[in-house]
C-alpha cells in the first residue's frame, strides 16, 4: 500500500466519529434526496404518466347488451378491447353495512389490452367467487348481493386502480351471470384507442356509434380528455404540496453533506499541517483528505440509495392514492443523479476545504484548529458566568461564541430545519382541510337509493319529501339533516351544463367552506364556486340567472363556496328556489348528523328499516376516512421525521467538533469534581441558545412560506381557498413549533453529550 493510502486509512481510523458522521450524513441526505426526487418525478404529469403506463382508453363506451353483440367500427381507431360484460349492483358488506351501487366489469386479465388495470394490493380474482375493488372494502371482506336470487357472495381479494376509470370493481366473466338481475342482459363495455385523440375526434366517434347502431344502443361514453381535465384540476392542489416536500428534502440533503464535510475538513487542519511537515505536497494532502471523506461518503451513498428505495415504495403508493392514479415506480435516473450528485458535492466541499488548509504555511496549519484563540468568546463566557444559573449551564452557554462561524452554521441548520418542519406541518394541516372541504360530506349518515341508480340526473326519482321527513324526524338520535336534489341547468355565457343543487335545509355544518359572503338563507339566494363566478363574470352580491327546462330562475349570489366538483360549475341554493322551474324535483340523497351519544350502526339499521318502503337506505358515511387524507397524513409524518433527522444530524456534527476541541478543558473540569451528569449538562447547554434562537426565527419563516405557498396553490387550481385552509397555525400549534428548534438542537447534541459523560479524566488530560 502506498504512503498516501496508509494516510487515508489511518486518518479514517483515527477520526472514527468524524468518519461515521460523514457516512451517516451522506446516508440520510441520499435517502432524503431519493425520496425528494421520486416525489418530484411523481408530481410531474401524474395522470399522463399513469395513463401511458396503463395504456389507457381514449374512449370507453357502454352499449345495451340486448341490442348489440359486436364492436362498432370507428374511423381513426388503432386498438380496441372488449366487449366486457358490465352490471351495476349494490352490495352489502359485514361489518360495514350497504355500499353504494358498483359498476362491475367482467375481465379475464388485468394487464392486457387497453386500460391495463394495476393491482395495488392483493391479487386479481382467480375464480367466480372473488372480486377486486377500487375502494370501499378491505381485503378478505365478503360482499353479498341481497337483491339477487340466491344472494351471491364475493370475497375481496385485491385492490385495483384504473386511470381510465372504466369500473369500480372487477370480476372474472364467469361471475357476471350470478350478478345479473333476472330477466335482463348485461350491458357491454368497449374500449378504444385513437391515433389522434382530439375532442372533436372522440365526439364524432360517439356520434358514429349512435348513427350505426339501433336506437338506444349507446348508453354512455367517457372521453379520456374529460378524465384528464378533472385529474389535472384535482392534482393542482396536491402537486405543490409534494413538490415542496421534495425540494425541502433535496435542500436539506445539500446542507447536511456540505456542512458535515466542511466541518470535518476544518477539524483536520492540524493533521494536514503534520502531513506537510513530513514532506507531503499540497496536492497529496488534498488527495489524502479527499479519500478520507469519499470512503464513508460512498458507503453512505450506497446504503442511502437502498434505504431510499425501501421507503419510497410505500411513499409512492401513498402518492398514487393522493393522485388517484396507478402507482409510479422509482426511475433509475433518479438514483444515478442523486448518487452522483452526493459524491460530487462531497468531492467539491472536501477539495475546497483541503485546498484552503493546504495553502497554509506548515506552522500555521499545525497550530490551527487545536485550540481556540484565547480571547475569542471570552466576553461571552464572562457574561454567561454572571447569569444566575448552575455553573455547568453557564459553561455551556458561552462555548458557541468561541467559534462564531460554526455557531452561525449551526444556527442556520436549526433555523432551516425548524422552518421546514413548520412549513411541513402547515401544509399537512391545510391539505387536510382542503380534502375535507373538497368532499364537503362530513355528515355521520348518508341516505340514498337502495338499488342501482339510473344513468344521468333523474329529478323525480326520490320519494316524497314529507314522507322522508316524517321517517327521519321520528328516528331517535337524529340531529341536523338535509336533502339534496340535483337538476341540470345552463347559464348564459357559460358552456356546458351547470349543476343546480337544491337543499332542503341549512347544510353549512356538513363541511362546506365559504371563501366569501355567507350561506343562503331564503329562496332566491344561492352560493357559487369560484370557477363559475369567473366564467359567468358574476360577483358576490350580483344576480345569476339559471335556465331550467326553458324557465329562467334568477338567483342572488350571497356567497362564494369552495368546491372542485363538476369543474366548479355548480350552484347551491334552496329546494324552494328550483321548484317553480321543476315542480316534481325531489331529493334523492340525504345527509344526517347524529345527536350526542347516538350509535351510527344502530341508527342506520333502524332508519333503513323505516325508509325501505320508500326505496331508500341509510348507511354510515365513510367520507371522513378518505384514503387521500390518510395518505397525505402518512406522507406528512414520514417526510417531517426525515427533515428533523437531517437537521439534527447537522447539529450533531457541529456539537462533536465543539466537544472534541474542548476535551482538555473537559478533563480539567472533571479533575476538579465535575460529574458525568454535569458534563452532559455542559454539552446540552452549549446548543441551548442556538436551539431557542433557531426556533424563534425558523417558525415564523415556515409560517410565512406557508402563507405564500397556499394562495399560489389555489391560484394554480383556479380556485379561492377558504380562510380555514390558510389559518391553520393555532396558538397551541405555534407553542409546540417554536420550541421545536430547541428539540432539534438537543436531539443532535445527545450523542456528544453521552460521549463527554463517559470520557475518562486521564484520557481527556492527555489529549492535545
Description:
- Among the domains are: 59-196, no CATH class; 371-440 and 628-768, no CATH class; 445-620, no CATH class.
- The model is unreliable at 369-374 and 452-458 (pLDDT under 50).
- By secondary structure, the protein is an alpha+beta fold.
- Helix 11 (391-398) packs parallel to helix 19.
- Strands 1, 2, 3, 4, 5, 6, 7, 8, 9, 10, 11 and 12 form a twelve-stranded mixed beta sheet that branches.
- The relative contact order is 0.12.
- It has 24 helices and 22 strands.
- The two termini are 29 Å apart.
- Helices cover 51% and strands 18% of the residues.
Notable features of this structure?
single chain, 768 residues, alpha+beta, twelve-stranded mixed sheet, six-stranded mixed beta barrel, 51% helix, elongated
**Oligomerization status of the protein chains:** single chain
Q: What is the beta-strand fraction?
A: 15-25%
Strand runs, count: 22
Query: Gap between N and C termini, in Å?
Result: 29 Å
| Helical content band | 40-55%
As a whole number of angstroms, the C-alpha radius of gyration is: 33 Å
Overall shape = elongated
Instruction: Let me know the average pLDDT.
Output: 78
Strand-helix topology:
Blueprint: H1 3-14, H2 16-42, H3 46-53, E1 59-63, E2 77-89, E3 92-93, E4 97-98, E5 102-106, E6 118-122, E7 130-133, E8 142-144, E9 153-161, E10 169-171, E11 187-194, H4 199-212, E12 218-223, H5 224-267, H6 269-277, H7 282-323, H8 332-358, H9 362-367, H10 378-385, H11 391-398, H12 404-439, E13 445-449, H13 465-474, E14 478-491, E15 494-503, E16 514-517, E17 525-529, H14 530-536, E18 543-548, E19 551-561, E20 570-574, H15 575-578, E21 589-594, H16 600-611, E22 616-620, H17 627-661, H18 663-671, H19 676-685, H20 688-717, H21 723-726, H22 731-737, H23 740-758, H24 761-766
Parallel strand pairs: 5-10, 7-9, 15-20, 17-19
Antiparallel strand pairs: 1-11, 1-12, 2-5, 2-11, 3-4, 3-8, 6-9, 7-10, 8-9, 13-21, 13-22, 14-15, 14-18, 14-21, 16-19, 17-20, 18-19
Amino acid at each position: 500500500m502506498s504512503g498516501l493510502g496508509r494516510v487515508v486509512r489511518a486518518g479514517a481510523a483515527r477520526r472514527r466519529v468524524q468518519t461515521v458522521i460523514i457516512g451517516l450524513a451522506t446516508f440520510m441526505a441520499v435517502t432524503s434526496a431519493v425520496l425528494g426526487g421520486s416525489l418530484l418525478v411523481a408530481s410531474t404529469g401524474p395522470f399522463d404518466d399513469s395513463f401511458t403506463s396503463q395504456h389507457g382508453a381514449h374512449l370507453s363506451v357502454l352499449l345495451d347488451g340486448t341490442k348489440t353483440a359486436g364492436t362498432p367500427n370507428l374511423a381513426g381507431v388503432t386498438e380496441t378491447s372488449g366487449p366486457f360484460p358490465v352490471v351495476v349492483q349494490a352490495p352489502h358488506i359485514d361489518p360495514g353495512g350497504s355500499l353504494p351501487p358498483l359498476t362491475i366489469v367482467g375481465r379475464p386479465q388485468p394487464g392486457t389490452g387497453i386500460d391495463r388495470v394495476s393491482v395495488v394490493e392483493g391479487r386479481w380474482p382467480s375464480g367466480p367467487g372473488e372480486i377486486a375493488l377500487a375502494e370501499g372494502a378491505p381485503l378478505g371482506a365478503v360482499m353479498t348481493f341481497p337483491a339477487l336470487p340466491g344472494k351471491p357472495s364475493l370475497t375481496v381479494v385485491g385492490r385495483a386502480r384504473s386511470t381510465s376509470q372504466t369500473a369500480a370493481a372487477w370480476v372474472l366473466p364467469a361471475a357476471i351471470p350470478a350478478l345479473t338481475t333476472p330477466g335482463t342482459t348485461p350491458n357491454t363495455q368497449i374500449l378504444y384507442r385513437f391515433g389522434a385523440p382530439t375532442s372533436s375526434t372522440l365526439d364524432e366517434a360517439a356520434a358514429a356509434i349512435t348513427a350505426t347502431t339501433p336506437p338506444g344502443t349507446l348508453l354512455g361514453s367517457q372521453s379520456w380528455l374529460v378524465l384528464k381535465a378533472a385529474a389535472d384540476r384535482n392534482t393542482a392542489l396536491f402537486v405543490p404540496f409534494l413538490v415542496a416536500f421534495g425540494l425541502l428534502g433535496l435542500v436539506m440533503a445539500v446542507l447536511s453533506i456540505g456542512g458535515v464535510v466542511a466541518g470535518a475538513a476544518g477539524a483536520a487542519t492540524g493533521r494536514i499541517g503534520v502531513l506537510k511537515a513530513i514532506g507531503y505536497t499540497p496536492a497529496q494532502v488534498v488527495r489524502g483528505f479527499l479519500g478520507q471523506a469519499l470512503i464513508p461518503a460512498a458507503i453512505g451513498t450506497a446504503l442511502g440509495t437502498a434505504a431510499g428505495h425501501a421507503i419510497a415504495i410505500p411513499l409512492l403508493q401513498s402518492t398514487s392514492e393522493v393522485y388517484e392514479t396507478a402507482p409510479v415506480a422509482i426511475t433509475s435516473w433518479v438514483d444515478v443523479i442523486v448518487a452522483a450528485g452526493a459524491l460530487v458535492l462531497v468531492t467539491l466541499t472536501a477539495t475546497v476545504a483541503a485546498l484552503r488548509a493546504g495553502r497554509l504555511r506548515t506552522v500555521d496549519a499545525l497550530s490551527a484548529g487545536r485550540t481556540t484563540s484565547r480571547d475569542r468568546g471570552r466576553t461571552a463566557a464572562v457574561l454567561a458566568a454572571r447569569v444566575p444559573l448552575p455553573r455547568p449551564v453557564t459553561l455551556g452557554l458561552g462555548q458557541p461564541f468561541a467559534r462564531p462561524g460554526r455557531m452561525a452554521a449551526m444556527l442556520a441548520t436549526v433555523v432551516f430545519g425548524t422552518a421546514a418542519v413548520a412549513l411541513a406541518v402547515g401544509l399537512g394541516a391545510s391539505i387536510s382541510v382542503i380534502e375535507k372541504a373538497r368532499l364537503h360530506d362530513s355528515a355521520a349518515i348518508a341516505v340514498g337509493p337502495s338499488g342501482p341508480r339510473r344513468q344521468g340526473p333523474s329529478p323525480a326519482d326520490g320519494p316524497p319529501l314529507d314522507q322522508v321527513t316524517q321517517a327521519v324526524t321520528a328516528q331517535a338520535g337524529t340531529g341536523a339533516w338535509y336533502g339534496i336534489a340535483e337538476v341540470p341547468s345552463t347559464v348564459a355565457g357559460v358552456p356546458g351544463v351547470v349543476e343546480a343543487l337544491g337543499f332542503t335545509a341549512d347544510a353549512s355544518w356538513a363541511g362546506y367552506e365559504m371563501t366569501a359572503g355567507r350561506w343562503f338563507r331564503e329562496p332566491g339566494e344561492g352560493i357559487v364556486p369560484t370557477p363559475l363566478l369567473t366564467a359567468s363574470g358574476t360577483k358576490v352580491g350580483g344576480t345569476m340567472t339559471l335556465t331550467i327546462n326553458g324557465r329562467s330562475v334568477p338567483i342572488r349570489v350571497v356567497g362564494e363556496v369552495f368546491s372542485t366538483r363538476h369543474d366548479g360549475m355548480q350552484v347551491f341554493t334552496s329546494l324552494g328556489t328550483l321548484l317553480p322551474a321543476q315542480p316534481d324535483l325531489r331529493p334523492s340523497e340525504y345527509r344526517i348528523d347524529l345527536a350526542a351519544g347516538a350509535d351510527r350502526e344502530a341508527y342506520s339499521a333502524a332508519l333503513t328499516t323505516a325508509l325501505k318502503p320508500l326505496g331508500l337506505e341509510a348507511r354510515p358515511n365513510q367520507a371522513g376516512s378518505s384514503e387521500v387524507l390518510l395518505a397525505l397524513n402518512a406522507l406528512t409524518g414520514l417526510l417531517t421525521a426525515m427533515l428533523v433527522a437531517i437537521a439534527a444530524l447537522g447539529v450533531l456534527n457541529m456539537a462533536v467538533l465543539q466537544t472534541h476541541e474542548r476535551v482538555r478543558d473537559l478533563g480539567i473540569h472533571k479533575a476538579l469534581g465535575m460529574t458525568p451528569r454535569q458534563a452532559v449538562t455542559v454539552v446540552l447547554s452549549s446548543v441551548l441558545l442556538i436551539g431557542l434562537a433557531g426556533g424563534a426565527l425558523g417558525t415564523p419563516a415556515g409560517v410565512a412560506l406557508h402563507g405564500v405557498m397556499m394562495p399560489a396553490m389555489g391560484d394554480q387550481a383556479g380556485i379561492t381557498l377558504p380562510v380555514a385552509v390558510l389559518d391553520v397555525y393555532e396558538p397551541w400549534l405555534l407553542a409546540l413549533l417554536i420550541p421545536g428548534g430547541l428539540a432539534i438542537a438537543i436531539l443532535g447534541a445527545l450523542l456528544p453529550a453521552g460521549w463527554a459523560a463517559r470520557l475518562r479524566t486521564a484520557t481527556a488530560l492527555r489529549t492535545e
